[in-house]
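Suppose you are handed only these lines of text.
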Amino acid sequence: MELYLDTANIAEVERLARIFPLQGVTTNPSIVAANGESIWDVLPRLQNAVGKEGRLFAQVMSRSADGMVAEAQKLRECVPGLVVKIPVTFEGLAAIKQLTALGIPTLGTAVYSAAQGLLAALAGAEYVAPYVNRVDAQGGDGIRMVQELQALLELHAPDSKVLAASFKTPRQALDCLLAGCESITLPLDVAQQFLAAPAVDSAVVKFEEDWQKAFGRLSL
Ligand code: E4P
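From them, the structure of the protein bound to erythose-4-phosphate can be written out as follows.
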């Protein structure tokens, strides 16, 4: 499977790339805007932080297909291996088709239904990103959407992968992986919640106490 961090925080990517088995980093316009720096400065530094094998994702801003294609090409000039995120609107779908024909890898984003995600995959998107928590927050069932999308891609678009996104809890992410998703992207807080159970630290402290009592030291 592929694990990504959903962030443009370079210091945190550098720190967590040492710890987590990461394949790369995803961003979106809100994430880059919150960082405050120019996208053209941030993207090469993020690529550097994940290493040359790491995969970086960044999104276009234009609303027209031709504008999206032009921005995608500019993003790829900035970071050659970058996967271009395209919102799956009517124009976005046309852009995914054009970019696929040009050999530029895309991720269909802002996916709120399995039907929408399937269309992006059929248009040639390498990845499709369903927004799990945003669907839940609207009173929908984000996990069910992902289950349906995963099944549809396996049946009808096997060259595309679900990259499940928009999480508020580790449970949501695990449910997507159990549904068969090959890839997920986690915001920093959710990634850290994977290891944040207080019982973990307590267990390690108890091992240390027992060892110290018996051998008078904390090393083997
Ligand atoms: C990924 O493609 C999305 O940009 C991202 O995961 C959205 O997450 P949010 O709903 O927490 O903003």
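What can we learn from it? The CA atoms of residues 63 and 206 lie 57 Å apart. The beta strands are 2-6, 24-26, 55-59, 83-87, 106-111, 127-130, 161-164, 183-186.
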